[in-house]
């Protein structure tokens, strides 16, 4: 096939695509100056000029694909084509899982420079959810992990959602690392951590459920799974003779070049190694 024929074929395909897009948009209702429509994924293009390169995130989205959760892509109708401003990774993931269409919020009349500005400023007016806000929403929605965490907290008398309690109880301030432990090592790990704190008499002490303490105990759990009861006894014996502030200060003095978590982990690990023989 000659180059001229190839070019003609490509131009015809481009024109057909543009006509198809135009027909779709002509029949789409406009709401507040924007159009919303289910658009075939094959009609959506990703502009290379201002979009980020792919870095594998789309594979993670595809593994946990949920079209409702993915939401609407933000696209621009320009020069007869639909360009994705926000949502290229979701688009690629949608194609990977075999979705035929995706909901789109469609701008018209934008230049490529306008699109780039929208892309660059897309998070300026968004307030990122705090971890506690996200977990509360997931709990209300019936998410299994969030409900499991709430049950563990209730079992140990720990406040997960402060808006739910008027009582003076210890609060889970190390929520993020507790979730990491739950997701990575399961509920037995979290229960062991909470049980260790309670047996030490720290469960009513301020700071006992902080990030550094929970992370350090998690590190011990992971490193000593085959002798976890013995390790717990060693930690409880240490904790009963002091409080969180004192032991964290001691750890910082002994390991000044390390973070709070690393220094406390090192202090506890040294005690375990000394007593486990």
Structure description:
- The protein has 277 residues and is an alpha/beta fold.
- It folds into 2 domains: 3-120, Conserved hypothetical protein from pyrococcus furiosus pfu- 392566-001, ParB domain (Alpha-Beta Complex); 131-275, no CATH class.
- 55% of the residues lie in helices and 11% in strands.
- It contains 13 helices and 6 strands.
- It has helices at residues 3-26, 57-63, 67-70, 88-97, 112-120, 131-140, 144-155, 175-185, 187-199, 211-223, 228-240, 244-254, 260-275; strands at residues 30-31, 34-40, 44-45, 73-78, 81-86, 101-108.
- Strands 1-2-6-4-5-3 form a 6-stranded mixed β-sheet, sandwiched between helices.
- Helix 8 runs parallel beside helix 10 (211-223).
- The radius of gyration is 27 Å and the shape is elongated.
- The termini are far apart.
Order of helices and strands: HEEEHHEEHEHHHHHHHHH
Rg of Cα set: 27 Å
Distance between the termini: 79 Å
Number of discrete domains: 2
How is the main sheet built? 6 strands, mixed
- How helix-rich are the residues, as a percent range? 55-70%
Q: Any descriptors?
A:
277 residues, alpha/beta, Conserved hypothetical protein from pyrococcus furiosus pfu- 392566-001, ParB domain, 2 domains, six-stranded mixed β-sheet, 13 helices, 55% helix, 11% strand, disordered N terminus
């Amino acid at each position: 096939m000659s180059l001229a024929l190839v070019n003609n074929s490509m131009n015809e395909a481009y024109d057909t695509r543009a006509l198809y897009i135009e027909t779709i948009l002509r029949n789409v209702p406009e709401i507040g100056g924007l159009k919303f429509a289910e658009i075939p994924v094959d009609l959506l293009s990703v502009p290379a000029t201002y979009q980020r390169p792919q870095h594998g995130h789309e594979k993670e989205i595809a593994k946990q694909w949920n079209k409702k959760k993915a939401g609407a892509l933000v696209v621009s109708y320009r020069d007869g084509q639909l360009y994705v401003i926000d949502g290229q990774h979701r688009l690629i993931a949608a194609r990977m899982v075999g979705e035929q269409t995706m909901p789109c919020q469609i701008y018209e009349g934008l230049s490529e420079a306008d699109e780039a500005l929208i892309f660059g400023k897309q998070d300026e007016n968004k307030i990122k959810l705090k971890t506690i806000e996200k977990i509360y929403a997931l709990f209300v929605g019936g998410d299994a992990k969030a409900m499991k965490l709430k049950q563990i907290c209730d079992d140990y008398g720990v406040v997960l959602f402060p808006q739910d309690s008027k009582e003076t109880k210890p609060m889970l301030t190390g929520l993020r690392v507790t979730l990491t432990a739950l997701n990575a090592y399961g509920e037995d790990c979290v229960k062991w951590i909470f049980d260790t704190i309670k047996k030490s008499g720290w469960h009513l002490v301020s700071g006992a459920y902080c990030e550094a303490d929970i992370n350090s105990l998690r590190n011990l759990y992971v490193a000593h799974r085959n002798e976890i009861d013995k390790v717990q006894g060693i930690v409880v014996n240490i904790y009963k003779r002091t409080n969180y502030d004192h032991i964290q200060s001691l750890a910082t003095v002994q390991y000044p070049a390390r973070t709070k978590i690393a220094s406390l982990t090192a202090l506890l690990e040294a005690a375990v190694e000394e007593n486990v023989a």
